[in-house]
Amino acid sequence: MPARLAPALCVLLAATECGLLEPEVADRPVVTGSALEVLSTLEVRDRAPRAGYDRELFGEAWADVDGNGCDTRNDVLRRDLDDVDLDRRNGCLVWAGVLDDPYSGAVIDFVRGPETSPLVQIDHVVALSDAWQKGAQEWDAATREAFANDPLNLLAVDGDVNDAKGDGDAATWLPPDRGARCAYVARQVAVKATYGAWVTEAERDAVARVLADCPDEPVPTADDAATSR
Predict the structure, then answer these.
(1) Measured between alpha carbons, how far is residue 55 from residues 33, 58, 61 in Å?
(2) Average pLDDT, stretch 189-201?
(3) CB-based contact 153:124 (threshold 8 Å)
(4) For residues 22 and 16, is the Cβ–Cβ distance under 8 A?
(5) Burial, 7: exposed, middle or buried (Cβ in 10 Å; 0-12, 13-18, 19+)?
(6) Which is the most buried residue in 7, 14, 130, 162, by most CB within 10 A?
């Protein structure tokens, strides 16, 4: 391991526990430290062509990768919503809850249904197509599926805000709530360091500008992101 990575990364075997939303990928780096410190360890490269990208290359959408009997979408809804109403038959399906949107600060009453479910979406903080253009083309199928379902990379958010974000990186999109930006880019840095995805020069500079206002912002960890049943 290069010396410059030592303060930020240590490799541990991923521990699994029934009920924790934690994809089973051994030897993933566990990233710690300040986001600014970890940002300095990320490789800077131009993005690769988007050609060949397909959502199916990242596995089944919202697969039950942790084997807890619940799909990833409902795991994240259960973690991120308040006043959650669960299906009493299986303890998985989230029927209703209240979201304090981490990107806009809006409060959204979530009710499951064809017309209302899209009001709360699950955002890949590092978008799948962004990852595809910055390293994921070289990953194996298991790693891509783990990435797509990793709770560290997932947040329940306002659907309209998520639609506006699209697959943008920090150089092209940041949360409308300026107070949310430090935590947002810190999470992107943590995800990219964990999976070895790179950043473009413009992306790195955009993240650094945000973190200049919060130089001690820590990267979130898998333990911070995990959810229990």
Answers:
(1) 32, 6, 8
(2) 98
(3) yes
(4) yes
(5) middle
(6) 130
Strand partners, 10: 30
pTM of the model: 0.88
Q: Looking at the DSSP assignment, which residues form a beta bridge with residue 110?
A: 97
Q: What percent of the chain has pLDDT over 90?
A: 80
Residues ≥6 apart with Cβ < 8 Å to 53: 128, 129, 132, 133
Reading the block at residue 149, the tokens are 């379902």
Q: Please give the structure tokens belonging to residue 201.
A: 């020069």
**Residue 44's pLDDT band (cuts 50, 70, 90):** very high
What percentage of residues in the chain have a pLDDT greater than 70? 87
- Are 5 and 40 a contacting pair, CB within 8 Å? no
Give the integer Cα–Cα distance in Å for 187 and 190.
Answer: 5
